[in-house]
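User: Sequence in, structure out. Go.
Assistant: Echoing your sequence, followed by the structure tokens.
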Amino acid sequence: MPGVGAAFFLIFLLWIGIWGGIGAAVASSRGIGTGMGFALGAALGLIGIVILLFMKPRAVPGPAGPSTYGVPSAYGGHVGHAGVSLLQELHPPRRERVPPLST
């Protein structure tokens, strides 16, 4: 039966395409890499999709803060300790005294 090998190969390619595509879509919607979603879906099928549904989404990296004084910030000015500008650190904002209400 020469057609059995070709049929098996076609089913194999359909399996990879369908389950891999579903896995990539699920992974993309959950913030996980689409490559990992495609690989899990193509290799494991429905089990891979279930694994993707239980995976924690990847944290979105924020801008990296400088670790030393005097480093220019991407947002203008210089940034010191814990993201406080040097000007604010040397001269904290003054609190205005509000007179008490007289009754």
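User: And one key feature?
Assistant: The chain has a mean pLDDT of 76.
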